[in-house]
Amino acid sequence: TVTTDLKDEL
Amino acid sequence: MNIFRLAGDMTHLLSIVVLLLKIRTTKSCAGISLKTQELYVIVFITRYLDLFTRYVSFYNTAMKLVFIGTSVAIVWYMRLHKVVKQTYSRDEDTFKHYLLIPPCFILALLIPLEFTVTEILWSFSIYLEAVAILPQLLLLQRSSNIDNLTGSYVFLLGAYRALYIVNWVYRFFTETHKIRWIPWISGLVQTALYADFFYYYIKSWKNHEKLRLPA
């Protein structure tokens, strides 16, 4: 989902 | 991980190192806004709530701990360290930073990434980070002379998010092909707030003159 690719950033 | 994001993270880390260097070596936090530093503690804590629940990579976890730890340490130095706290420009650091929190929180409730507690707080931290530099920029305008370390700190802080914007463009075209309104628009606003600082900083650097911001 969208949230996953957001969360590998600081 | 791409080169732009790594450069962004390293620039962000370097800005914090420069600030800690200034505070520790000169035992002074003159010209540094405590309010901006306090906002950054809130930004990091609300953004990294998944620190213990989601493992992305060693790098990711380590950097989150460093950002939270150093931002708390800086606020500790400015509030409690017996020598440093005397040098805080209290009567110039007057931006009512607590007024920034409700609008960012309401915006996070209206436009969260997903309507869950962690995502609302994550969106809140993105919005808050965009405006967290305002007290510091106001303080710089009031400071008669800005020392090199303070100027470098703010420059690096602004540059890191500009590098993140390049990272987002790169990822859009190479990986996700997804538009990410929340970080993109906030990141553009955040970087735009530094625009006039960047202009005067680069001008002072080119002309080898003291950095001064017009009041």
UniProtKB/TrEMBL annotation, chain B:
Signal peptide: none annotated. One of its GO terms (molecular function) is ER retention sequence binding. The keyword Lipoprotein does not apply. It is a multi-pass membrane protein. Keywords: Endoplasmic reticulum, ER-Golgi transport, Membrane, Protein transport, Receptor, Transmembrane, Transmembrane helix, Transport. The chain crosses the membrane at residues 55-77, 98-115, 121-140, 152-170, 182-202. One of its GO terms (cellular component) is endoplasmic reticulum. InterPro entries: ER_ret_rcpt (IPR000133). One of its GO terms (biological process) is protein retention in ER lumen. It is found in: Endoplasmic reticulum membrane. Belongs to the ERD2 family. This is ER lumen protein-retaining receptor. The lineage of its organism: Eukaryota, Viridiplantae, Streptophyta, Embryophyta, Tracheophyta.
